[in-house]
Known about the structure:
By secondary structure, the protein is mainly alpha-helical. Among the domains are: 1-129, no CATH class; 378-498, Rossmann fold (3-Layer(aba) Sandwich), CATH 3.40.50. It has 23 helices and five strands. Strands 2-1-3-5-4 form a five-stranded mixed beta sheet, with helices on both faces. Strand 4 and strand 5 form a beta hairpin. Helix 1 packs parallel to helix 6. 40% of the residues are buried.
Amino acid sequence: MKQRTLFLLIITIGIVLRTVIYIVNNSFWYDETLLAYPVIESSFGHLFLPLRQGQVIAPIGFLIVTKFFALALGNHEYTLRLFPFACGILSVFIFWRIAKAKLKPDAAVWTTILFSFSYYAIQHAAEYKHYASDIFFALVLLGCALWVESGRLSVLKYAAALISGALSIWFSFPSAILLFCIGGYLLINSFLSRDYIKIKCLFPIICVWAISGIFYYAGYKELILGKAFGKSYLEKWWLDAGGFPNFTSFSLENLLWPVKSIFLFFDNPIGIFPIIGLLLYTVGMRSLWHENKRFACLLVSPVIVSLLLAIAGIYPFKERVVIFLIPFVIITMAYGIAAILRFISKYTRYGYIIIFFLVIMKPLMLFVENPIMHIDGSKKAIRYIQDNWQADDQGVIVGSFSYPQFEYYTLDRYIPYHIMRAHTFGISDRPSWANSRNELKEYGIELSKLTNSPQPVWIFITDDPYKEKEYLISFLAKKGELRHRYSSKNAHVYSYKLKETKT
């Protein structure tokens, strides 16, 4: 098979996989509705204001573009997910162009395969979050860096580098890390090449990048650092999730945090068996270092800087928030595959088949186990309530962790509802969603007030790890008779006809 035909086949598969996930149009899950509801309800001006309590974080540029699509094409999952989807599709083409222009033919093919079949890159391309745009702008910045590096700095290169760098910071939080690494790389590379004219041209570009970044982060630090939640909220969340090392206590686990984080990084977001990924990356970096030390430094610097920022407690190194590193790591792994194939081809003819299955096995397993990363049936469940709503129904009791979906999917038809207060991080002798016995008592009192009328009441709740659903059902089963029951994927609806309360 000709190389051009092979590239075309790989790219087509990558685009088809992303398109299928997008067309499936699964209901928004918790995080997506936390972002979608305020975007739909807010004006463009309000998107520049600090977040309200409980709202997820997204770059201003991402919010503005998706708000524009919603106004132009209507409020729908397809329209809000259109920008991430476009970023996902364009990323496949940009990655192919970078691989074809910069890498050796064998490494270019494997790079394109790894990215086209990347499970998490595919899934986030059909999700209303900014992670697909993180990958897209990482590729744009990498492509610009390699383009500026090659030959003289023309007006077109100058403009492309200046504009892409200045804009990327408004669409992707981690682009600040990449701009630091790429700017440093271009300056050092030009200095080592004694291209002082290029250095003079690069300084204004880097100054514009810095000004754009300073303006953005200074103006919207509450949004980025989570001060709308209380500064410690996001820090604690990522610390508990393993995104930061916990140096408050001395232990071997904390000392080994960088090693563990790198190991888990290959599992998610790279999407390959960690042992295999680490081996390919190590061999690839060694091979690349011998071939082109400067290019190796460009590819490894964002990973090192991200790790150092996590150790400093500034930016977490965990799963989706470091998905922007995928291009830099995958290119290095592809060099590792090429080097290993050159070695094992001396002993077997089936090296390509063996390597292919080793790198593709993990994505295939993920697709078989979980074809859609976040399955949510909230839309159908809420439609069931609306279709069966009676005039004498009292309202809907919405679970503590189900309110974003309910608020978003009832925008077109209001239904009276009450959100139960969130209670989390419990201990073993009580429901794990209750923080204390007093809170559990208050929750019961709150629920009693909502059910002291004989009017029928509904429950809407999604699956969560806190066992709130069991408590609600048990409570209402004692207060009345089950009238309706409906489940769609992880969303559940119950309706109870309550007994007359004796006075």
